TrEMBL record:
Organism from which the protein derives: Sphingobacterium paludis
SUPFAM superfamilies per record: Carboxypeptidase regulatory domain-like, Porins
Coiled-coil ranges from the UniProt annotation: none
InterPro entries tied to this protein: Beta-barrel_TonB_sf, CarboxyPept-like_regulatory, OMP_b-brl_3
Species lineage: Bacteria, Pseudomonadati, Bacteroidota, Sphingobacteriia, Sphingobacteriales
Subcellular location: Cell outer membrane
UniProt GO MF annotations: carboxypeptidase activity
Compositional bias of kind Polar residues: 420-442
Leader sequence segment: 1-21
Name of protein: Carboxypeptidase family protein
Chief location: membrane
Amino acid sequence: MKRLTALVGFILFAGFFAVHAQVKVTGEVVDDTEQETKLAKASVMLLRAKDSILVQHTRTDQQGRFSLLRPDTIPYLLIITYPKYGDYYKTITAETDVAVGTVRLSNVSQLLEEVIVTGKIPVVIKGDTTEYDASSFAVEKNAKVEDLLKMLPGISVDASGKITAQGKTVEKVLVDGEEFFGNDPTLVTRNVRSDMVDKVQLYEKTSEEADRTGVDDGQRIQTINLKLKEDAKKGMFGKTEAGGGGDTDRGFYSGTLALNKFNGSQKLGVFGLTSNDGTVSLNWEDRDRFGFSDLSTEVSDDGSVSFSWQGDAMDYWNGRGRPRALSTGVSFADAWKDSKHKLNTSYKFGIIENEEESTRTLQENLLDAVLNSNEESSSKARDQKHRFNGRYDLKIDSLTTLTLSLGAAAGNVESRRSQETNTFDGEGNQINDNVANQNMQSDNQSIDYSAYLTRKLRKEGRSISLRVNGNHNESKGEGWLNSTANFFALDSVSEIDQRKTMRSFGNNFRTSIAYTEPLWKRLTSSLQYEFSRGVSSSINSSFNQSAATGEYDELDQEFSNDFDFNTTRHAANLSFNYRSDLFDANLTNNVRHDELYQVNNYEGMDLSRNFITYNPTVFFRYKMSKSKSVYFRFNRNNNLPSLTQIQPLRQNTDQLNIVVGNENLRPSQSNSYNLRFNTYNMLKNAYMYVSLNWSQQFNNIQQNIQIENGRRTLSFANLDRVANTVSLWTGLGRDLLKKQKVRGSLDFDGTYNNYFNYINGALSENDNIDLSLSLNFDRSVKKGFDFSIGFRPGYSLLRNSLQPDLNSNGFVYNSNANLEYYLPWKLKVYSTINYLYQAPTKVFSEKFERFLWQPGVTKKFLKNESLTLNFFINDALNQNIGFTRRQNASTLVQDRYNTIARYFMLKVSWDFTSMKGGTE
């Protein structure tokens, strides 16, 4: 790491002298006829004369003055532009500072018969849109759009493909104004050649709600639109990859085949994948690239739009165990009749098998004692699933749009788990132990559906919309439980030998109708009514072995239950939206009537409760400029208790931890406050942001704990203490060495979480504090030496009021580096490094230290460099150990688990395409 630090210092030192070796170009811009009129905010650009590549860009100040740096002494072209004025051109050849003096621009109305030759302008700002001329920026041969974006002022792309433009994350990349391959930016940027692109446009896109209703809801999505050259939308692209290797115990393999064929808006994608190296699905960019996105959108009660990921174990590995995966799928999308009809469907099948071994150390803090537990467990699981998703959009007429969505899934899960637990008091005396083995098998299925109809009415801003959505899910299975627990203080043994059956299902339905009405030019109102109905059921049965027959058919009613839980909601929203160039505001008033009805079928008991709640939202945003804004949101919400929290049942799957429901739970309330400020300077490619969040939980539903002879009984209850969470995120970043494309950023994160529960009747106050400072440097130009280096020191505090001296406070340090060096002959050597250190604490006396290093080398073949050979060693120092440390109320927990460690692999991949690019 010392070498990395020295390298960064050298780059910064060299860059300091490089900057001071540059010379200045200065001047003043005025109106030709009224020279006392200074032209503020005029665009000033410096281009290399030989190829028109943009090297510097600035704007004039309020007095019309400008100053920019000239990198070297080769000839440059100075261009000055201003809306509705003729352009100014001047060749700069002098080797010293250049003062161009007063530049007089003529209004186009005065240029009646003059011919103005404007040439090619690299950057043009049109209102809220920044437009880049793609051919004005130099990229390597066969470069992709991602490489082009890295060269554009104000835009950066990190190693994962995440795009940041003017300080904000780009969430959507369009092609000629339309979604081309899906809803993830990298699906275009890593596969489309840059020479296909004519113009790159950057702007903030309004939400789908605003587009469909005509009412601006204030939601904005940072968007890039690629305007293609002619004949650039037909073709095929794909990827095939195969890898093999091993360690001292077993072999490792990975194989992927993906193909996408398209013709205009029509797209057909297929893929297949198998591996045991932790790759359980296409990575997040390839999923969208080939049409298998699991992202969905939802409109909340206050009208805001949220994005959620619908993935599961078939799409993501959590780093625990050693998984084996097989996954395949097909997708189809098309649009016809001028996009009046749009269809998008996909089907996916996958199998995941995993083996996990773990150890857990726990400390439970009591008022006058502590309990220490050690757990060892091993498990094997097999998860198989089919999944289908479909969406159909119909533009009925110019004012009416209908969207229909359908999703379905069916799967099977098999698992075997063995666990051994030992509990000791503070003196080291053993209190109890438990050995449990459990086998389970379940079949699961679900279906989701939705319809969304919007109709714009004759008056601008007036609209009506109707939503219908729902889902049905069902799960059934059976299993076996064998458990033996020894309670040494009681000199007793508890043995369980049972067959288990389980069945659960749920039906949920929601419909809403909303009407929007403009009150005047900048103020609109919206009235919405919602009805929703939820019906769920849970049946869990335990059977003991019959002494007479030997069959497991004797019902154990103590550990069996049959429970129904139904909810009905009527809700009304009245909201007001104010929109102007500088100020946006929203007030949403939400009133809900919730009815909860629950039935214990075994005991013949039922309970019905009703709640009327008010859930307001207040939002405002002040735009100080196009690149600087402040934002505030307040939201109050009432949260209903869940089925698992209220059901009065007892389970014996873990004899040392018994969970008991509470049928008398009340809703909890939460207040959340969010204050944000962000600014971006395009000329310096610099940003800064501050985000402060505070949430309060009233009547918080928390688990209370009663411990007797080492056995924990956990019950849910509403607490009268207010829980608080406060977090602060702030950061800044900018170009440090612009010519060398070196950027730096500094970020601070801090979170304070304070909450309460009762342990053996004593109030326990729990404090979690996490602080971290992050310093990062990066360079990515795909030439010479590229790097991304980060240093992240921090401090973690895990404290409990019952035993404040037995805390788990400690220093935490994380550092990472991605290093790449591009050699001749299409060779690249690289290293990925991660270092983690967690200091010993008063509870966990051992430190944790892990240094992960993955070195590798790649070689590209073929004229278009589409064939790649990659050799790497994963975890070359063999230090990858699964590790977590956390606090759950009064319990401090440390986990260690097996994961994928050192192995070597040789991979060959071929990215093929028949896409046509333009020629200059």
